Amino acid sequence: MQTSVHWLENVAFEAKSESGHQIVMDGSSAYGGENRGPRPMELILMGLGGCASFDIVTILKKSRQDVTGVVCELKAERAETIPAVFTKIHLHFVVTGNDVKEKQVAKAVELSAEKYCSASKMLADGGVEISHDFEIKPA
């Protein structure tokens, strides 16, 4: 996997992925940013949510659950000192569907956290305390 990051101006950068996608990142106004895109640390959090959600959807579909929606809401805490790394991240999954079984969702969350989600594993192995919970809503 490869990517490149090009400086645009001030504290704005454009990242281009190997798969041909691009995104602009920008710093806060305190550092000269213009809010032209997410902060780099926000992208890490977004990536974690995407990675875990991918797992949840695929695991639930394989277990023949009638899932119609999955939302992953993430809340993170960062260290007070530089480097301001993530110290805690909580993922809350809202799974919508028809007759979705709680046991299946719990298993999907567990498998994602402990086996499949590369982003979660990498962050946890780096010392980030990661927690999860979920709720199920009827479609």
From TrEMBL:
Protein name per UniProt: Osmotically inducible protein C
Listed Pfam families: OsmC (PF02566)
InterPro entries: KH_dom-like_a/b, OsmC/Ohr_fam, OsmC/Ohrsf
Source superkingdom: Bacteria
